[in-house]
Amino acid sequence: MTRLRIDLQDLLFGLFLVAVATGTLVATRNLTVGHAADMGPGYMPRVVAFALMGFGLFFTGRGLWRMRVGIAPVQLRPLLAILASVGVFALTAERLGLAIASIVTVILASLATREGRVVETIAFAILLSGAAVLLFVKLLGLPIPIWPR
Questions:
Q1: Domain ranges, residue 36
Q2: Phi/psi of residue 62, each to 5°?
Q3: pLDDT-based confidence at residue 99 (cuts at 50, 70, 90)
Q4: Are residue 82 and residue 130 in the same domain, yes or no?
Q5: Do 132 and 80 sit in the same domain of this protein?
Q6: Which of 65, 59, 112, 62 is nearest to 84 (CA)?
Q7: Could you tell me which of 54, 74, 73 has the C-alpha nearest to residue 14?
Q8: CA-based nearest residue to 49, from 26, 29, 24
Q9: Which part of the chain is the DUF1468 domain (predicted)?
């Protein structure tokens, strides 16, 4: 008796991507596509759908020809740290301002790993916060408060 060489997780993920891409193509079939120089409303959804279709076909093919490789068990610490950092940013960006909310977000996200060092984390948080303020507020001109009101 031979064992099937199917990685069910990759196969199902690939089929899911193909299904989402197919659904997008069907849903946008009546929109004008246009071309790269004159994009219609259906241009980007179709481009993204075809890219998604390509990834889906890749994962489907890989799932059919590769032995099952197990996925590592979910680690609770990184999951909670990242979720908390995103949630805290969403809740504090307007009240505390982009600068402080970004610093707090990076520090919370750094709790996802045990390898982080406090000084490096704070330096990176300050640098990233400054870059976010420069990009979003100064260059793009978005109406986001930088500091608390």
A1: 8-65
A2: -65, -35
A3: very high
A4: yes
A5: yes
A6: 112
A7: 54
A8: 24
A9: 12-145
Same domain, 52 and 21: yes
Q: State the average pLDDT over residues 58-71.
A: 81
Residue 142 carries which DSSP code?
-
The per-residue pLDDT for range 40-58, each reduced to its tens digit, is 898 999 999 999 999 999 9
Residues facing residue 39 across a β-bridge:
34
Say yes or no: 123 and 81 in one domain. Answer: yes
Burial of 124 by CB count in 10 Å (0-12 exposed, 13-18 middle, 19+ buried)? Answer: middle
pTM over 0.90: no
How many structural domains is the chain composed of?
2
**Looking at the domain assignment, is residue 21 inside a domain?**
yes
